[in-house]
Write a structure and sequence with these properties.
The complex is a heterodimer of chains A (514) and B (330).
Chain A (H helix, E strand, L loop, with lengths): L9 E12 L2 E12 L3 E5 L6 H8 L7 E6 L2 E3 L4 H6 L2 E4 L11 H5 L6 E2 L2 E2 L1 H14 L15 H14 L4 E5 L7 H16 L3 E5 L3 H7 L2 E6 L2 E7 L5 H9 L4 H4 L13 E10 L3 E9 L2 E6 L6 H9 L6 E6 L2 E3 L4 H6 L2 E4 L3 H5 L6 H13 L7 H14 L16 H13 L5 E5 L7 H16 L3 E5 L3 H7 L2 E6 L2 E7 L5 H9 L3 H8 L1
Parallel strand pairs in A: 3-10, 3-11, 6-9, 9-10, 15-20, 15-21, 18-19, 19-20
Antiparallel strand pairs in A: 1-2, 1-4, 4-5, 7-8, 11-12, 13-14, 13-16, 16-17, 21-22
Chain B lengths: L9 H17 L7 E3 L2 E3 L1 H24 L7 H16 L4 H25 L4 H20 L4 E2 L3 H8 L1 E2 L2 E2 H19 L2 H10 L1 H6 L4 H27 L1 E2 L8 H11 L11 H21 L4 H17 L1 H17 L2
Antiparallel strand pairs in B: 1-2, 3-6, 4-5
Helix pairs in contact in B: 1-12, 2-7, 2-10, 2-11, 2-12, 3-4, 3-5, 3-10, 4-5, 4-10, 6-10, 11-12, 12-13
The chains are: A alpha/beta (514), B mainly alpha (330).
Chain lengths: 514, 330
């Protein structure tokens, strides 16, 4: 056992961690190394495996394979509490403290100073005050935690973790709801803690902040480790390439297949369309028989654009037109009425109705569109279900099976079928290939092309740049909740998209986040 | 219409048979029926007749619960509508009496639906408001007294007979068929199940989830109004303090015994009514057995537990799906 504070010895060593959820492999032999006194950014797109890795390391999820060492000593925590005892503390974006208790009570929850079985309130407050003073915070510790800003709540959570002798501090998106000033304070505290020898894992999708604070960066993609670099020697473009793309060379050839279509008619157009604090006003034209890709990092405004276009979110300015006629998109019902369809990113919470059958899930949108008084007869329902189960090769081919029992890829196909049954003119697909296995992945992409050839207009979001490049006729690049560039024809390649995303934007980013 | 009688009713039917058999043991005349003045009499008819209010309530409640809601106010709505019917019975025609009572139930339902669907309140809290206030309203209507009436029309509604069957039983049967026709004959059933199964997803699929939720509370209010009128007609008077007292709990119990999950989604009208009959068969059996009524509650609890255990393979089946869904979420 080596417990000496040898700086060369990693503080936290994760080796060969694997974790599967059913058929989906969330983590595959991931390594991660955290040194004492280091601020280490853990990056990756949604679904890359960041939170799974954190949850496996802290014992929230059991792991399938791999080992975790702290200070050279192997640990296998079975719960977050056990992880804390082993020296790993996690502070999540939504602070997991008790907002109705006082700051002092939160700090000393479960270990209040007692005398004769009675909590010594005075003593507790004195110690809480002293503890927070170390973090440069001078507040009334008797006030309920909820009366303070999220920043103070974060600092309280960190103070509690550090006071519980955490050696490894994991901060999951700590800056997501902080303003610029609060971020500065938090970073000050992080640097101070690092100086004390605590290792900090910083999960964030604000790349500017990553470059500002971190010493080292580990990037995950699709559950695999893609690289560990020193921040100072990793150019931003290279980092984004690690997060999003594979090798640049292999993707350029695939584009040849995108055929030349006749003059395409405009299906829907959006002019100065936007919503304050959600996504900046944008212009977007969607044509029949055309795939428009939305590319950008997590939080860049891709999903927000999709929801505005479909009507799931109300715009506060701008005009929308369908086939040239002005329309109002106030609700999903409006979107459906105008022939739009939307497959959301969160299939399970926003897409399928798990308990209902494949048949019922498929007919749902069409039935909603037709209205209550014009029910689809059971024969029509069976016919629709049979047709789409066959057309999309949904497995198992049993229309009466609850859709919750299907695999992710097949659930995605059921959602596609739901919208195809409404004979839409525009389909919005948010991450249609997320979390599904390789075979289904290729099939979905083939389907996208086929639908497009049938004259459908498609708006597709994907974090897989080479995928977007493969099927898009045009690509809109987003950054910081604004559309910043539109690429068409020959200009569409991974390199150009990356360059657009990575263009130095510190000033813009700061403005957008404050 | 196949969904009206799903295969999954086996546990409930079995439970009903067992309870009937036990009733036969404690009361040998339990299955005896006799025809007198063109009307059937006997314990079985008694069960049907006494079970009518809860059966009517469960018809509305099952739809509310299918949307992942709950309506605690139905007992109070019964009291309000019973009071209205009793106050008007001797001065107005039956049509006016019924229209006023059912209209009041509809307004109560709209109120609940408004709180839940439009203001987004939690159903249990939203309907608690009317549960408490409703008794007060009913007492204001009766001015704190027990209002009695002698209108033969309304009395007939509670005590008359049609084709040998008590009128309340015929009304309940009619409501079951009507509700079934409306819910399964239109797309309402599917859209309600979708709303209860996953409201967010249904909303995004273009389902008018607010309208769905509003309409089930309205229907629940109308069913409760009818139950209130029948309860008043039965005793030829309205007792604002006791009419429908605690019946909301029996209605919820009936729905749960009928296999509809409190988490919303799939529902069955027939099984909910069967659940109401199971509860009433137990009540009647215990009364006939001569055991002190204190036993009633205990026996009820045991039987409910048994029915739920009988359903448990299905429950664990869905628990399995839920667990899988949770696990696959990264």
């Amino acid at each position: 056992m080596q417990n000496s504070p040898d700086p060369a010895l990693p503080l936290l060593e994760v080796r060969g961690i694997s974790k599967s959820f059913g058929a989906v492999r969330a983590l595959q032999e991931v390594d991660f190394t955290l040194r004492a006194g280091e601020i280490h950014a853990l990056l990756g797109e949604n679904g890359a495996g960041k939170s799974t890795l954190i949850k496996v390391v802290t014992g929230v999820f059991p792991r399938d394979a791999g080992i975790v060492r702290i200070g050279g000593e192997e640990v296998a925590p079975r719960s977050a509490k056990a992880a804390l005892a082993a020296g790993i503390a996690t502070v999540y974006q939504e602070v997991n403290l008790l907002p109705n208790l006082s700051v002092a009570q939160n700090l000393f929850l479960d270990r209040q100073p007692m005398r004769f079985g009675i909590v010594r309130e005075g003593e507790m407050r004195r110690r809480a005050k002293a503890l927070l003073a170390e973090f440069g915070l001078d507040i009334d510790v008797a006030a309920p935690l909820s009366s303070y800003s999220v920043a103070v709540q974060h600092v309280t959570a960190i103070a509690r973790a550090v006071d519980l002798s955490a050696r490894v501090l994991i901060l999951d998106e700590p800056t997501a709801s902080l303003d610029r000033h609060e971020v500065e304070i938090l970073f000050g505290i992080m640097r101070q803690l690092a100086k004390r020898g605590i290792g900090i894992v910083f999960v964030s999708h604000f790349l500017d902040q990553v470059y500002e604070i971190s010493d080292r960066i580990t990037v995950l993609r699709n559950g695999r480790l893609v690289g560990e670099r020193e921040t100072a020697s990793l150019p931003r473009l290279e980092l984004i390439r690690l997060m999003l793309g594979r090798e640049l060379a292999e993707t350029t050839s695939a584009r040849a297949s995108v055929g030349e279509h006749k003059v395409r008619e405009i299906c829907a157009s959006f002019e100065n369309y936007g919503k304050a604090g959600y996504v900046a006003p944008f212009n977007l034209e969607l044509r029949h028989g055309e795939v428009v890709g939305l590319a950008g990092l997590l939080g860049s405004g891709r999903t927000e654009t999709a929801r505005l276009v479909f009507g799931a979110e109300r715009a506060d300015g701008g005009k929308a037109r369908v086939e040239g006629a002005p329309v109002r998109l106030q609700s999903p019902r409006d979107g459906v009425r105008h022939g739009f369809g939307y497959c959301p990113e969160e299939r399970k919470t926003d897409g399928i109705v798990a308990e209902l059958t494949v048949r019922e899930n498929i007919v749902l949108a069409l039935q909603a569109k037709r209205g209550l008084h014009r029910p689809l007869s059971r024969r029509e329902q069976d016919e629709l279900a049979r047709r789409y189960v066959k057309m999309l090769d949904i497995r198992p081919p049993d229309p009466e099976r609850p859709v919750g029992l299907l695999s992710g890829g097949n659930q995605q196909k059921v959602l596609l079928a739901r919208w195809l049954a409404t004979s839409p003119r525009l389909l919005v697909l948010d991450e249609p290939t997320r979390g599904i296995d390789v075979g289904a992945h290729a099939e979905i992409i083939r389907l996208i092309r086929e639908l497009c050839d049938d004259g459908l207009s498609l708006l597709v979001i994907s974090s897989e740049l080479d995928e977007i490049v493969t099927y898009s006729d045009r690509v809109v690049v987003l950054r910081d909740r604004a559309h910043i560039e539109e690429l068409a024809g020959e200009a569409i390649d991974v390199g150009n998209i990356l360059a657009a995303i990575a263009a130095d934007s510190v000033a813009v980013a700061l403005e957008a986040h404050t | 219409m196949t969904a009206l009688l799903p295969r999954r009713g086996l546990a409930q039917i079995l439970a009903l048979i067992v309870i009937l058999a036990v009733d036969r043991v404690v009361s040998p005349q339990f299955f005896d029926l006799r025809l007198q003045d063109g009307r059937l009499f006997g314990s079985l008819i008694d069960v049907l007749n006494r079970g009518t209010p809860v059966a009517l309530l469960s018809l509305g409640m099952v739809l509310v619960i299918a949307t992942r809601g709950i309506d605690l106010s139905v007992g109070a709505v019964m009291a309000i509508c019973g009071a209205i019917a009793a106050s008007l019975a001797d001065t107005h025609s039956l049509a006016v009496v019924l229209a006023a009572a059912l209209g009041a139930g509809l307004i109560c339902g709209l109120w609940n639906g408004f709180l839940v669907a439009v203001l987004g309140m939690q159903p249990i809290v939203a309907t608690l408001i009317l549960m408490v206030a409703g008794r007060g309203i009913a007492q204001l209507i009766t001015e704190g007294r027990i209002v009695t009436f002698s209108s033969p029309d309304l009395v007939w509604l509670g005590n008359g007979s049609v084709l040998g069957l008590p009128v309340p039983v015929v009304i309940a049967l009619g409501m079951l068929i009507l509700t079934g026709a409306v819910v399964r004959g239109s797309a309402l059933g599917l859209l309600i199940e979708a709303t209860g199964g996953n409201a967010r997803a249904s909303e995004l699929a273009g389902v008018g989830t607010r309208a769905m939720i509003l309409s089930v509370y309205v229907w629940c209010g109308v069913c409760a109004a009818l139950a209130g009128v029948i309860a008043a007609a039965d005793i030829m008077g309205a007792d604002a303090n006791n009419a429908g007292l605690w019946l909301e709990l029996d209605a919820i119990l009936a729905v749960v015994i009928g296999g509809t999950s409190l988490f919303g989604g799939r529902f069955s009208l027939v099984l909910a009514v069967l659940g109401a009959l199971i509860i009433q068969t137990m009540n009647t059996g215990i009364l006939l057995s001569g055991y002190p009524p204190e036993f009633n509650l205990l026996v009820k609890a045991v039987v409910v537990l048994t029915v739920l255990l009988l359903q448990s393979p299905k429950l664990t089946g869905f628990a399995g799906i839920a667990a899988r869904l949770r696990r696959t979420k990264p």
